[in-house]
Amino acid sequence: MKLSRRVSWFLVAFGVWSWIVWITFVKNLWKDTSGLAFHHGDHGSPTAYFWIHLTLAVVSFLLGTAIAALGARSLRTLHHESRTAMPPAVDRPVPEHQR
Hints:
This protein is mainly α. 65% of the residues lie in helices and 0% in strands.
């Protein structure tokens, strides 16, 4: 399957976006003081809420990375194909009136 340049860039952007969103989420999860993520604010005592959401974040990191890698690989392939498909430059004499 061959992806277009537009779709390839979308996949890369989606992967980057996924990392930005989930890194922010994990930072906020770690700073949680409401008692949802940690019992009594003790980081040594995480709750099920913490583990479930950390698992979601890790899976999203992995999927975002895989999706961005597919897009980057497709962009490299498209770039390589466009470089090899270009005809070589032809040395033509410059007409007298253009000199």
